[in-house]
Amino acid sequence: MKTILVSGYRATELGIFSAKHPGIAIIKKALTKQITALVEDGLEWVIISGGWGVELWAAEVTIELKKSYENLRLAIITPFLEQEENWNEQKKTTYSEILSGADYVNSVSKQKYAGPWQFKARDRFLLDNSDGLLLIYDEERDGSPRYLLELARAHAEVTPDYGIITISGQDLQNIAEDEQQYDYE
User: Fold this and answer.
1) Is the dihedral of CA 27, 153, 127, 50 positive or negative?
2) Rounded Cα distance, 159 and 86, in Å
3) Which burial class, exposed, middle or buried, applies to 100 when counting CB atoms under 10 A from its CB (0-12, 13-18, 19+)?
4) For domain 3-183, which CATH number applies: 3.40.50.450, 3.30.460.10, 3.40.50.620, 3.40.190.150?
5) Torsion sign over Cα 58, 63, 64, 67
6) Where are the chain's structural domains?
7) Pick from 91, 34, 32, 87: nearest CA to 65
8) 117, 119, 120, 122 alpha-carbon torsion, rounded to 10°
9) Please, which domain of life does this record's source organism belong to (predicted)?
10) Rounded distance, CA 132 to CA 155, Å?
11) Tens digits of per-residue pLDDT, 94-128?
């Protein structure tokens, strides 16, 4: 895979309302491990749509990994213009910093929010322009990533070699337990 779409839960779906939440470090560790393995296997581009949560944490991980892997690039392709318009100032500042670390920034729809069709157009565009999906999603815990996973599975049926990698709640739990054990040693 040369280009991977990364997505997952929004922060609020995970009950994360602070940038200091300990769960963010676990999610970033899982993303770092998976993206690093993909880069070492030829990955060149990480694409996100800039959603507040897993996607922006993936962007932060990618920006950090770019320091070690000079061929790695980050693209942020939003569903519409100014998606951060109604975010609080702290979120806007963080988002602006992440955008400045991206290699490519664009929007699928060249207008502000106009309707849910923009999210569908985003998903179709991102699936069509990636070789695979890395998704933090647990089948046991429903949420917005389910829709992207369903689309990706349908896309994979007609697109040879389209890869789907999921990081489950159990995967995150294992990392958390490993971290806890490491802290005790």
Assistant:
1) negative
2) 36
3) exposed
4) 3.40.50.450
5) positive
6) 3-183
7) 32
8) 120
9) Bacteria
10) 10
11) 999 999 999 999 999 999 999 999 999 999 999 99
